[in-house]
Amino acid sequence: MPSSTDTNDRAKVITLVQQKGGSGKSTLAVNLAAVSGQNNPPAAADDPCPVVAAGIDRQGSLEDWAARVPEDRLPFDYVVTKGRIGEIPDLVKDPAVRRVFVDTPGFMETDPDAPMDADPLGSGNTAKAMEEVLETTDLAIVPITPDWLTRRPAEFTIERVLKPRGVKFLVVINMWDSGNDRENAEGIRPELEKLRNWCRERNYPHATVAIRRYKIHSKAPEDGLTVIQYPESGTALRAREDFYKLALTVEQAL
Ligand SMILES: Nc1ncnc2c1ncn2[C@@H]1O[C@H](COP(=O)(O)OP(=O)(O)OP(=O)(O)O)[C@@H](O)[C@H]1O
Ligand SMILES: [Mg+2]
After folding, report:
1. Which of 38, 47, 49, 213 could share a disulfide with 77, CB 3.0–4.6 Å?
2. Element at 120 (helix H, strand E)
3. Per-residue pLDDT reduced to its tens digit, 213-225
4. Total structural domains in the chain?
């Protein structure tokens, strides 16, 4: 863990991490970077963006997506590291950079028979990059979804990867199907409440806002859009509302 003195001046690192693939790491990384970038524009037109997104995922989802957004509309810079730590440590030290959002890959339990206290990240380039990123991470965001199968990997990520390293974390509920999760007589949305209770039972800090499931989110990479550029509609407003609220929660948690 970095000491408090060396975190004051350097960029804050927010890392999306969850063992389970498809839970929304890349979606959250890009859209949080977009909102943060909108709130932290470069001081002058030629200055670099104070917000940078980096994908250490070899799949390269983040850079594939960012590359489709026209450069003049992309409110953050992004770096391609392809399974390595790359320039992330330099970015963190760069006084022009304020926030770094890191997208990481889902990962395997390398050895299911390994003792409970063994580090599950294993070896290899990506594991090493994960290790190094977590060392410099100020806040890890762990997405869970209504899909029950995301929960055990979230717990594994928190208990076996984040807690042993002392990395501060926040669970974020993603892909909440608000339309089908109607309020009951007590004014409770049962599906959402179940996910929140899962966090409460484990004492996991979690964002009050849940990111709703919208088709525009899943189409956005192909359309070369981030949440701040969705064409105006009620859904776009609600989608933005979720990410603005989440961005605020993230800032408060840092
Ligand atoms: N809130 C949402 N509403 C609708 N679709 C979403 C939402 N969040 C994510 N998705 C879609 O779900 C799929 C998985 O999301 P994403 O790629 O962000 O997950 P991931 O955790 O990065 O996966 P991987 O571990 O494979 O990198 C994508 O098609 C994405 O567009
Ligand atoms: Mg991804």
Report:
1. 49
2. none
3. 999 999 999 999 9
4. 1
161-165 long-range contacts (CB < 8 A, ≥24 apart) are 161/17, 161/19, 161/119, 161/120, 161/121, 161/134, 162/17, 162/134, 164/117, 164/119, 165/1, 165/134, 165/135
Q: Is the CB of 211 under 6 A from ligand 1?
A: yes
In a domain, 104, yes or no: yes
**3-state class (DSSP) for residue 206:** strand
Distance 21 CA to ligand 1 centre (A): 8
- Amino acid at residue number 202: R
Residue 152 lies in a domain: yes
Query: pLDDT tens, 118-162?
Result: 777 877 788 888 999 999 999 999 999 999 889 999 999 999 999
Measured by CA distance, the residue closest to atom 9 of ligand 1 is: 24
What lies within 8 Å, CB to CB, of 225 at 6+ separation is 69, 216
